[in-house]
Write a structure and sequence with these properties.
single chain; 204 residues; Aminopeptidase; 7 helices; globular
Length: 204
């Protein structure tokens, strides 16, 4: 199916869109406010574990990956304010037809159902618009909040991967979760193309 960029996904007061240059001040303030909240879960470069790319590079990389369709990195906007991010990448087509999901939300908005809605919106886009077969997510075992998000989306726990991702200065174990298009009930998937989001709504 055709890839669309820039991508703009909406569900009521929640919106997923690309990071923009004019988001700089608000985005950096959001990250700084959540620095300690996110540090145990953020992926790091093993060669430079404390180095973070500048904002301008993030915007440039996100735009390049979005245009090529190799990854989607979108900010979560709620009632006009930045509330976190959701990412998808790498996106693989062909025999694998899969993508890896990531998400985080502002600690002040934790527990409001924002992360599950944003993740569901992105997964539905994967299945209905990108024609992917599978979405997976890797979560540190002790990250109970993130694991609850995966479970709310009916993602299957698939096992522990030793030293999978460099996080917070070291190689960390992660538990993998996954969902395939066939696991979305047909009456939900066929009706709107938003089967994951629709199921999430019904189970609230």
């Amino acid at each position: 199916m055709p890839h669309v960029w820039p991508l703009d996904l909406r569900d009521g007061d929640l919106r997923l869109r690309p990071l923009r240059r004019r988001d700089r001040r608000e985005y950096l303030a959001l990250r700084e406010r959540n620095r300690d909240w996110l540090a145990p879960w953020d992926a790091t470069d093993p060669a430079h574990p404390h180095l973070r790319p500048p904002f301008s590079a993030l915007v440039r990389w996100n735009r390049r990956q979005g245009r090529s369709g190799t990854a989607l990195n979108l900010v979560i906007v709620v009632d006009g304010a930045l509330a976190g991010q959701v990412s998808l990448g790498p996106i693989l087509h062909g025999a694998q037809s899969t993508a890896t999901l990531g998400y985080w939300v502002d600690s002040a908005r934790a527990g409001q159902g924002i992360a599950p809605r944003a993740a569901a919106l992105m997964i539905d886009h994967c299945f209905a618009e990108l024609g992917l077969h599978r979405v997976d997510v890797a979560i540190r075992p002790e990250n109970s909040a993130s694991r609850r998000v995966a479970e709310k989306l009916h993602m299957r726990e698939e096992g522990l991967h030793r030293g999978l991702i460099h996080v917070d200065g070291a190689w960390r174990d992660h538990v993998s979760y996954a969902l395939t298009a066939e696991e979305i009930p047909g009456h939900l998937r066929d009706a709107s193309g938003r089967g994951v989001l629709e199921r999430l709504r019904r189970e609230r």
